Amino acid sequence: MLGKLHRETLAEQAATSLMNYIRTRNLQPGDTLPSEAELVTEFGVSRQVIREALKSLQGKGVIEIINGKRPTIKPISSELLQTFFTHAAHFNHHTIIELIEVRKGIEVQSAMLAAQRRSETELAHMEEILAAMRRSVGAIDTDIDTSVDTYIQLDVALHQAIATATHNSMMYHLIHSIRSALIETIREGLLHRHTSEEIERVQEVHEMLVAAIREGNAPAAAQTMAVHFDEALTALMKDA
């Protein structure tokens, strides 16, 4: 099954061999690896080496280790990407701008694919979120901090719903991880819309976006998403 290891850095070699094992066996989330004892015998190394190799794969988000059970293959998640982007966003303002530019390209594609692929159920979910966003806009004048926070949560939910409608899991994870890293920047950008007209414009663009997706108009959806990001970036930099 797995060849014995003979060189230095045995834990790294074991981790690499385990990754190859996962790929060649086409293991799926929920499938298990051999037990520690079986791996020790197969590799001809100590239990400590195997534990280090498994810990390495756990740290990379490949497997889950629960005491008393065999290591289990984890589902794909955006956890590690989110950690990376969150770390990057704390460096400086220029890095934040770069992340927003990356996010724009991905979300423009997301809007286009959602217009082409969305189901009626997915569209209904977008419409529901959009209606809640409209109600939230009406409350911003009375309690801006609370209402903006509510609006941002709904905004994130809408963009995630659009990403879901692409039926592209990689795009979904990328969008989720970048948006999570930039959540404070998103809030800051919305707070920079000082007038009710500016806040209303944000909502109108979201409504235009969902309308394009509803109509299956992929070019219009992509263009509207691009406008949304251009205006958000302008607002963010206005008071910088």
Characterise the protein shown here.
With 240 residues, this protein is an all-alpha fold. The protein folds into 2 domains: 10-73, Arc Repressor Mutant, subunit A, CATH 1.10.10.10; 79-238, Four Helix Bundle (Hemerythrin (Met), subunit A), CATH 1.20.120.530. The protein is 74% helix and 2% strand. It has 11 helices and 2 strands. It has helices spanning 10-24, 36-43, 47-59, 79-89, 93-117, 120-139, 144-165, 169-181, 183-191, 196-215, 218-238, and strands at 63-64, 72-73. It has a two-stranded antiparallel sheet with strand order 1-2. A hairpin with a 7-residue loop joins strand 1 (63-64) and strand 2 (72-73). Helix 6 packs antiparallel against helix 7. The chain is elongated, with a radius of gyration of 23 Å. The relative contact order is 0.11. The model has no long low-confidence stretch (mean pLDDT 87). It comes from Thermosporothrix hazakensis. GO terms for molecular function: DNA binding; DNA-binding transcription factor activity. InterPro entries: GntR_C (IPR011711), TF_FadR/GntR_C (IPR008920), Tscrpt_reg_HTH_GntR (IPR000524), WH-like_DNA-bd_sf (IPR036388), WH_DNA-bd_sf (IPR036390). Keywords: DNA-binding, Transcription, Transcription regulation. Residues 8-76 form the HTH gntR-type domain.
